Amino acid sequence: MSDNLKNSKGRGAQINVRNKFLELSHEMREDFLEYCRLEGEIADKNKTSYLEVFPKTIVNKVTSPDVGMGYSMNPYQGCEHGCIYCYARNSHEYWGYSAGLDFERKILVKKNAPQLLEKKLLSRNWQAKTIVMAGNTDCYQPAEQKFRITRKCLEVFLKYKHPVAIITKNAFILRDLDIIKELTSQGLIAVNVSITSLSEDTRRVLEPRTASIKKRLETVKTLSDNMVPVNVMMAPIIPSINSHEILPLAKTVRKHGAISIGFTVVRLNGAIGEIFTDWIHKTLPDKAEKVLHQIAECHGGTLNDSRYGVRKTGEGKIAEQIHALIKIARQQYFSDIQMPQLNKSLFNMQRELFKNSPPGQMNLFE
Question: Elp3/MiaA/NifB-like radical SAM core domain spans which residues (predicted)?
Answer without folding.
Answer: 69-297
